């Protein structure tokens, strides 16, 4: 495909997305980009130009409004005014599966924003790379490979590196769970664990009970597998057990996915009494509970509560763990811990899906954990996160108008804010981005994506000073919208 | 669970599986293992004892025949004579999805064998760890991480490391394919690529056309996703295009999965004319073709034939590639190359499944390929494989009885043998294992697992001398069976 921007830069006064749109417009009008030609994907052009994907999306949106290009859901963006291709060589577009059609539509509905470099990223749960123990991991990797040699570069077996499963099981036992390494299967982060757990218990067309709000990527995984959602509302920081009981009683509901500790997006942690009652409910229904404990190692305040896995006496809990939030995501290592025959089913499914993970990274993590390097890292990160959380709570009290409420997490990377005055936070996001802050709007965490006055703020990437700046910007955006005489119509497409 | 074998070893004269069975029998009869107690999984016990899984399977089989334990499909193995557990705490066994029930049954039907250390492994396609360039990769990994730092330990983005996608696309272009890095999505080996490709085009209940015989793990992946198989027979080393045309005309058949180069298990490569005709057939049906090019870099003889991807003019071919056979499997890196909107769908699906792969391993591979280290390795491996193939062909001509036929691969790790006299190679495997050689019996590669007189031999792990020894053992087993007066009944369970 033709490369963009070999010419001298346009006047720097224009926003970047308008510069990109202008260039493309010139190339289309000159015929350099022919009718029906496919434009580079947003991803590719963003990478080529070194800009945010959302900036490119905005440029394409502008060209589309001008009738110069045509975007088809899931098909890409093409120069308008199509001409017929020679017979027998015309590109054919094979039909996608229905699940994937739905997934692609869902992906296109995610919020996009053109963000300046200085924008405070309170939207992202990706931990700050400045905090990763890169050299400790490099040494662990080199030591593991020097010792393990070729055997570490062969197949892991679908269950994964035994040494890492041992050290993880030992940690889980310290937390009260009755597990051995044999119960632990290593996965590509908790994400793959979610997909595997869904597939073990649910066939396409079946229903998965999830909290509402819930982690938006679990909604994607459910969609991608052709499953459906039964929402269980969160009240006072915990799923409503009455609704859960009625939901699990339905024969088409096969499992419950829950985040009792440092919930995403809520930031809340349920009590031991609630957990015991939840396990009673699940036990009466005989339905499995998938406990996503993805941030379990990030407690920085308060007293630990035993996990569902530790309280489980009936083998119904399948627990997900990940190094992605507490260490770094790039090893793509997490695990799924289960009981009895569920373990064998998970291993079979993992084998049928990708034969297993990368043994060398698993061995290096085993080394990092055994040597104490992981715990030293956790101590440092927890101190930093506590300082950031306190800065966030203080800034919220200082900057947000009366009627705003928020949760107070004892660990993890996020908290949840509810705004007054019926503000739709999907609309607010555009104002906030212009003010210099990004957040995750609440509609993303709802199964039907209906408007929400809630938003998730993250302390993963911003330090205390940036948090103060970002919350001040957020407060200004909220106050401006509360003072505005009328609410704007919600943008149909990309949000700016 | 109780550990095994703290006692002094049993007389070494007994086969290992009988030693294990004897220990377990003693523990059960003494009550040390209580009624209803779950035995360790085969996997776990094999790892604990440092023996082959099949050895443990044989031990369990013996205890089962003795009525001491009960094995339930997919549920594990338990000490017999069950007693009731206290009410309210009895373990509950949540129901599996139908797809997973079927997958677990399929897994249990795989051949098992108790193999002595000296057995020649002509069954496995896992490349010989002695050939891996461990130190070159170690250096590449360390250089990549020193340069990339924390950014290499963050999320890759679902499509994966751009540098590796660039070097792979450049290699594919050298092979004649019209692709850029933007068309390439990195996967966990070709295996994950298979799962992703199936999911993009087929919903549960849909049908996938596959060659027969075909790669047994693609049959597992199809089962695990709730899909069905339409077999297209291989005749004269290539899929029957008449059958393919009729199959792809069915509306429930959504795609064709094929291995035109160094087919697994056949070892055959189709002609350019056949490939062009195949693409015509697919084009008329408008159905996508998934070309598994997992051994494409392992040609050691003959002239290259353009890939389906290189001949494709209609964007119907989705190509899978892997480093697993040509370099080593442990990086768990392969890729899937597609066109237009299919790329976006694959990336969405990869994101929804596991958020993406491990950037640091991808970066190290990019470095290894760019620096020429991968090509130097390929040159060395191709020489070795050619020598091994020649040794195999000579041994087959020398040792196998008249009426035996085999294929002559120009690359890759395997060839296929057809035996005379109606021998069922699933039965023969037990004899061969006793004679000191393992192979992959043909029934594994058939969608309905019906008996086959074919078998796959691999040169991945045995050098020329071992190959000669192994084929001599195979020849002896075949001749003995041909000379035997009657055929034994086929074993129902584990094969010994």
Summarize the structure.
With 496 residues, chain A is of the alpha/beta class.
Oligomeric description of these chains: homodimer
Query: Whole-Å distance between the termini of chain A?
Result: 28 Å
Low confidence ranges of chain A: 1-12, 82-86, 486-496
Largest interface: A-B, 108 and 108 residues
**Looking across the biggest beta sheet of chain A, what order are the strands in?**
4-11-10-9-8-5-6-7
Helix-residue proportion of chain A: 40-55%
- Outline of chain A, from the CA principal axes? globular
User: What number is the mean pLDDT of chain A?
Assistant: 89
Largest sheet of chain A: 8 strands, mixed
The proportion of strand residues of chain A reads 5-15%
Structural class of chain A: alpha/beta
Radius of gyration of chain A: 24 Å
Query: How many strand elements of chain A?
Result: 16
How many helical elements of chain A?
A: 16
Explain how this protein is built.
The structure is a homodimer of 496-residue chains. With 496 residues, chain A is α/β, with parallel strands linked by helices. Chain A is 42% helix and 13% strand. Chain A contains 16 helices and 16 strands. Chain A has helices at residues 16-29, 42-49, 53-65, 98-108, 134-148, 162-174, 189-201, 216-224, 241-249, 272-285, 308-311, 340-354, 359-370, 373-399, 425-435, 464-483; strands at 69-72, 76-79, 120-121, 184-187, 207-212, 228-235, 238-239, 253-258, 289-292, 317-322, 334-337, 405-406, 414-418, 437-438, 440-441, 454-458. In chain A, strands 4-11-10-9-8-5-6-7 form an eight-stranded mixed β-sheet, sandwiched between helices. In chain A, strands 12-13-16-15 form a four-stranded antiparallel β-sheet, with helices on one face. In chain A, strands 1-2 form a two-stranded antiparallel sheet. In chain A, helix 2 (42-49) crosses helix 3 and helix 9 runs parallel beside helix 10 (272-285). Mean pLDDT of chain A is 89; it is low at 1-12, 82-86 and 486-496.
């Amino acid at each position: 495909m033709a490369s963009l921007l070999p010419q001298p830069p346009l006047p720097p006064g224009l926003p970047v997305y308008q510069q990109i749109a202008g260039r493309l417009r010139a190339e289309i009008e000159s015929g350099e980009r022919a009718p029906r030609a496919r434009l580079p994907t947003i991803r590719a052009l963003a990478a080529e130009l070194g800009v945010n994907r959302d900036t490119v999306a905005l440029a394409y949106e502008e060209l589309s409004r001008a009738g110069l290009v045509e975007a088809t859901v899931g098909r890409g963006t093409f120069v308008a005014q199509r001409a017929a291709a020679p017979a027998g060589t015309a590109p054919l577009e094979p039909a996608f599966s229905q699940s994937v059609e739905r997934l692609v539509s869902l992906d296109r509905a995610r919020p996009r924003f053109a963000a300046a470099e200085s924008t405070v990223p309170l939207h992202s749960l990706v931990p700050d790379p400045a905090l990763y123990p890169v050299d400790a991991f490099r040494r662990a990797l080199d030591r593991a490979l020097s010792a393990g040699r070729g055997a570490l570069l062969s197949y892991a077996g679908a269950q994964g590196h035994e040494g890492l499963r041992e050290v993880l099981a030992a940690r889980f036992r310290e937390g009260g769970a009755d597990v051995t390494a044999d119960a632990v299967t290593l996965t590509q982060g908790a994400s793959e664990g979610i997909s595997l757990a869904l597939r073990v218990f649910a066939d396409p067309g079946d229903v998965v009970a999830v909290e509402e709000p819930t982690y938006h990527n679990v909604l994607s995984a459910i969609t991608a597998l052709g499953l459906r959602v039964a929402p269980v509302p969160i009240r006072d920081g915990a799923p409503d057990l009455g609704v859960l009981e009625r939901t699990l009683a339905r024969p088409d509901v096969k499992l419950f996915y829950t985040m009792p500790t440092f919930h995403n997006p809520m930031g809340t942690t349920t009590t031991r009494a609630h957990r015991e009652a939840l396990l009673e409910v699940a036990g009466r229904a005989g339905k499995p509970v998938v406990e996503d404990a993805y941030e379990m190692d990030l407690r920085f305040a308060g007293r630990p509560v035993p996990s569902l896995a530790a309280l489980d006496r009936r083998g119904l809990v399948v627990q997900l763990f990940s190094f992605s939030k507490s260490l770094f995501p790039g090893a793509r290592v997490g695990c799924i811990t289960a009981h009895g025959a569920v373990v064998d089913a998970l291993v079979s499914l993992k084998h049928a899906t990708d034969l297993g993970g990368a043994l060398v990274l698993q061995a290096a993590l085993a080394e990092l954990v055994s040597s104490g390097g992981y715990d030293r890292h956790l101590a440092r990160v927890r101190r930093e996160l506590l300082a950031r959380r306190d800065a966030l709570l203080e800034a919220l009290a200082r900057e947000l108008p009366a009627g705003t409420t928020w949760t107070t997490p004892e660990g993890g990377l996020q908290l949840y804010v509810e705004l007054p005055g019926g503000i739709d936070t999907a609309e607010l996001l555009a104002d906030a981005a212009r003010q210099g802050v990004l957040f995750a709007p609440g509609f993303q965490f709802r199964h039907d994506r209906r408007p929400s006055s809630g938003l998730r703020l993250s302390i993963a990437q911003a330090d205390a000073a940036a948090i103060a700046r970002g919350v001040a910007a957020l407060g200004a955006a909220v106050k401006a919208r509360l003072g505005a005489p009328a609410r704007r119509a919600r943008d149909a497409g990309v949000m700016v």
